[in-house]
C-alpha cells in the first residue's frame, strides 16, 4: 500500500539518511568495542532505534507503508530483548 506524503526537499531526506548511516556505524562500533556489557546493551538498543528511524525514513522516501510494519516489529523485538538481557544480568548478580 502506498500513501501520499507531504513534499519534503530531496536534500533533507538525503542528509537524514547519511546522518542515520553515520549514527548506525558509530553505534555498531560501540556494540563491538563497548567497555562493559551494559554499554553494549545500550548501544544495541540505540542501534535498534536507529534502524527503526531508517525504516520510517524509507517510508517517507518511497511511500511504501510496509516499512512501518518492519519498524514496529523491530521495536517489539528490541524491547523484549532489552528486558530479557537486563533481567539476566539482574539474576546473575544474585
From TrEMBL:
It comes from the Bacteria. It is found in: Cell membrane. Keywords: Antiport, Cell membrane, Ion transport, Membrane, Transmembrane, Transmembrane helix, Transport. Its main location: membrane. The chain crosses the membrane at residues 12-32, 44-64, 70-89. It holds the Pfam family MrpF_PhaF. InterPro entries: MrpF/PhaF-like. It is a multi-pass membrane protein. The keyword Ion transport applies. The keyword Transmembrane applies. Belongs to the CPA3 antiporters (TC 2.A.63) subunit F family. This is Monovalent cation/H+ antiporter complex subunit F. It comes from Rubritalea tangerina.
Amino acid at each position: 500500500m502506498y500513501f501520499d506524503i507531504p513534499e519534503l526537499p530531496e536534500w533533507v531526506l538525503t542528509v537524514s539518511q547519511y546522518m542515520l548511516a553515520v549514527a548506525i556505524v558509530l553505534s555498531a562500533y560501540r556494540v563491538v568495542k563497548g567497555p562493559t556489557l551494559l554499554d553494549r546493551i545500550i548501544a544495541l538498543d540505540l542501534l535498534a532505534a536507529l534502524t527503526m528511524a531508517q525504516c520510517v525514513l524509507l517510508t517517507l522516501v518511497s511511500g511504501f507503508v510496509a516499512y512501518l510494519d518492519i519498524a514496529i516489529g523491530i521495536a517489539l523485538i528490541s524491547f523484549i530483548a532489552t528486558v530479557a538481557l537486563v533481567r539476566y544480568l539482574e539474576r546473575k548478580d544474585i
